[in-house]
Design a protein that fits this description.
alpha/beta, Rossmann fold, nine-stranded mixed β-sheet, globular
């Protein structure tokens, strides 16, 4: 891991960009974090739209995490941002756009081609990033995962033992294989669902929540579209992570 820039967003939030091999990332930490006072870490998941486009929302979520006493970090997903193009996934996205424009149902084959290769490649990268982040002074476990793509969050919650709690954002296409993985997830879960999300299959989100095997799981369903998440929903998620990471 090599840090490439550093700035203070305010007196309490230090933002540093880094590269892990050829993977860009961003780390936000409280100014008070130190080897003698380390803070837990929350990994910030996001859709494959590029860190540049997602930065305002990620920075807002990171500020909230820091205010709650955590460090927060994210990495660029494969095939996104300045990373090399990924032809197979781009073809799957093009086919998805064609089907949606034609008003046709989105079949399992398209969803699998769109999501599963991304999960298979992204999850090992998240785990490598976690290895490097936990070696930094001022950061410690336990670790939380917050956000989407929800299939990435499910795989991490299932396979990464250092993740003690997950706050997942419903709203992306979910392969059937992810439902099977969800049945084996046992960490505490907090799932956020926007009830009127125009790009989300609400029933599929509810079915996935029902499939999770976690003894402790909660669903925060709020009226409004994809970008209409109320402020108190973020505060609820913060309290969830405070309970399980501190």
């Amino acid at each position: 891991m090599h840090f490439t820039s550093e700035q203070h967003l305010d007196e309490n939030v230090l933002e540093r960009t880094f590269t892990l091999g050829d993977i860009p990332g961003i780390l936000w930490t409280p100014a008070s974090a130190s080897p003698s006072a380390p803070v837990p870490l929350i990994l910030l998941g996001h859709p494959p739209l590029g860190l540049g486009r997602m930065y305002p929302r990620l920075a807002g979520r990171a500020r909230q995490a820091v205010a709650d006493g955590f460090a927060a970090a994210t990495i660029e997903l494969p095939g996104s941002g300045d990373r090399p193009r990924w032809e197979a996934v781009e073809q799957a996205r093009a086919e998805l756009r064609r089907v949606l424009a034609a008003g046709e149902p989105v079949g399992d084959e398209i969803v699998d081609a769109l999501v599963l290769p991304l999960v298979d490649r992204a999850v090992p990268e998240w785990r490598s990033a976690l290895d490097a982040l936990l070696e930094l002074p001022g950061i410690r476990g336990p670790v939380g995962y917050s956000g989407g793509v929800i299939s990435i969050g499910v795989r991490l919650a299932l396979t990464e033992p250092r993740i003690a709690a997950a706050g997942l954002f419903a709203g992306s296409f979910v392969p059937r294989a992810t439902f099977e993985e969800a049945r084996r997830v046992t960490v505490p879960l907090h799932v956020l669902l926007q009830w009127d999300d125009e790009g989300n299959d609400r029933q599929a989100s509810l079915d996935l929540f029902d499939a999770f095997g976690s003894p402790e799981k909660s669903l925060s369903a709020n009226m409004g579209g994809h970008t209409g998440v109320p402020q108190y929903a973020g505060e609820d998620a913060g309290r969830f992570f405070t309970r399980h990471l501190k």
